[in-house]
Amino acid sequence: MKNTLFWRLFWAFVGTLIMTVLVLTFTMVTLMRAERQSAYEAEVRMQARDVAGLLQMRDMNSAWMLNPASGTTVQWKIDEIRENYGAEVWLVNANGSYAVVGSEKYGEQITEQHVLEQIWRVLSGYEIRVQGLLDELGDSMVTIGVPWYGSGMFSGRVMGAVLLHISVDSLKVDYSDLVRYAIVAGVVAMMIGTLLAWLIARRQSQPLKAINEAVTAFAGGDFERRVEIRGDNEMTQLGASFNKMAEEISNLDQSRRNFVANVSHELRSPMTCIQGYVQGMMDGTISDEERPKYLQTVLSETQRLTKLVGELLDLSRFESGKIPMNMTVFDVDELILSVLFKYEQKIEDKEIMVDIAFREQPCYVRADADRITQVVTNLIDNAVKFTREGGQLTVWTHAVDSLAYVTIKNEGTGIPAEDLPFIFERFYKVDKAHTSGKGTGLGLSIVKKILEQHEQNITVSASGSMTSFMFTLEKADGKKEGTV
Ligand SMILES: Nc1ncnc2c1ncn2[C@@H]1O[C@H](COP(=O)(O)OP(=O)(O)OP(=O)(O)O)[C@@H](O)[C@H]1O
Ligand SMILES: [Mg+2]
Questions:
Q1: Which of 270, 281, 393, 426 has the CB geometry, 3.0–4.6 Å to 445, for a possible disulfide?
Q2: Alpha carbons 91 and 81: distance in angstroms, whole number
Q3: Distance 372 CA to ligand 2 centre (A)
Q4: pLDDT of 279-292, one tens digit each?
Q5: What are the contacts of 105-111 at 24+ separation with CB within 8 A?
Q6: Spatial distance between the Cα atoms of 447 and 463, rounded to a whole number of angstroms
Q7: How much distance in Å is there from the Cα of 164 to the middle of ligand 2?
Q8: Is 0.70 surpassed by the pTM of this model?
Q9: DSSP label at 323?
Q10: Which domains does the chain have, with CATH numbers?
């Protein structure tokens, strides 16, 4: 159950979703944290600038002396910074002596070289940010330094530096609220995503499930089972292909049933006839004088059976396509004449007028001569069988380009237009009622199969009492050769 397509798709989607949400949330939180951090640092730096601005507005005389006890707005500002940010502010003059407002320290001189270097940078107009600058404050202190400019006659000159010392910890922003929001957003995204994954997985797996059910039912013998087709994608194409295949298999199954029914029917009538007559002869119902007549019937019924079995064998051999063709070059006109010759007696009996029109003589073709003899025999047999007494039978051959055309035309019963499309089907007979004495309806299907094997075609046309069959053969140039 857990291994079905649905679950596999579902877990694949959910897995991808979890990964995506985790990566996205982590990236977002990291980016936002960095953003907040730099905003906070900028805010802290702003405080130092504010102090520098206030110093600029002060009276220069007292300013440069850096008297912290003067009770100016600078002091208030520095106290406020100390309170709000936990930061210490040093005011450093151009000589490098400094004061810490609000404490005892003022007028002290900075002596460390590396600190002085940084102070000089600020005095040159730059802003600095250095961690662990002053040994006395320790490594965890960040020092932000901004220049403080003079006013009046000192306008544009850097008078000193404002150094703001803040511990790394107080500089860090609290982002636990960010994480909280991110978790809530992540969970909501996961819930919606899981729901969507479930819907998509179901939508994707359902057609396959339906096809699977249909195939299983079909394999179980339900030949009527089909897949419902909706939309147009690979799945529906698969469903459509299955339906097509199912249609063909059930047609095949139907034709197999029809075939068995037809064969049994064709076998039953001669066998019943033979059984009846033999029984009659044995129990004396048929007198000795009548015996030869009945024996003759038994013989012809046996011949009919043999012919039927032979034709069935031929058909199955042609359909399996297993017998190789023996292609030779021969004169089809000659072949037709020899077949007609075999039917001489029947033609004379029915007083049929035979008209032979060979446009090209000889007409060489490349084909399997034995099989083409079978084709011509079947067609002439039909023509002779279905021509009315004294009717006309025309045989003509002609060649166009690379093809030779053989036409066998006769007048007689004709074939109704509605029967024409089915005439080459096995056991198809126009006169469905006829039984004994006539054919089995296999001749034309054998003809068709042979010509298909030659990759040639046969057509039939009928109007009124005229019936005409025409088939093509590959024309061979030049004289008769040996086996090709
Ligand atoms: N020349 C023709 N004129 C009229 N009907 C024809 C002609 N040829 C074929 N038919 C019709 O087509 C049907 C099928 O012909 P086909 O040769 O397949 O079978 P058959 O002649 O009845 O039997 P078989 O050839 O097996 O002895 C025939 O039963 C007949 O109804
Ligand atoms: Mg026939």
A1: 426
A2: 14
A3: 15
A4: 999 998 999 899 99
A5: 106/66, 106/67, 106/68, 107/66
A6: 22
A7: 115
A8: no
A9: S
A10: 5-176 (3.30.450.20), 324-475 (3.30.565.10)
